[in-house]
């Protein structure tokens, strides 16, 4: 009897609430005095960094890690709407990033820090913990294979075939199928 090859794709999806949140913010000041602009940014940065140090615990959180960019200071001379170059405007800026293990603590912290002068929250990146991601990836992979085998059995049954034996398994595109089943 000739061999019949059935190629199918199995999929499975899981949704979980994020366990980690990494917030990125900027401390930015502008002004006509370089010294004052730099002092304001330095002071605000020191205040935020001190607060993060107080709640940082790499094992238990709520802040698992945090980092700060190098403080940047520069100036430029803007142009008026009449085409005249205006006096120099000085800028001071530093970025801060913090990873929280507790979404509620992150929310509270952002709610407090974002109200301070000179602070802009650029965004939050959400993710699972490494352990949860590994565990869920294994579960989802297993369920996707189970779905593919069940689908192949249904196809085989429709063809009147009873003996089903998987001969290859891959992610889409790895068997030369250009990603299509």
UniProtKB/TrEMBL annotation:
Superkingdom of origin organism: Bacteria
InterPro entries: SIMPL/DUF541 (IPR007497)
Name the record gives this protein: SIMPL domain-containing protein
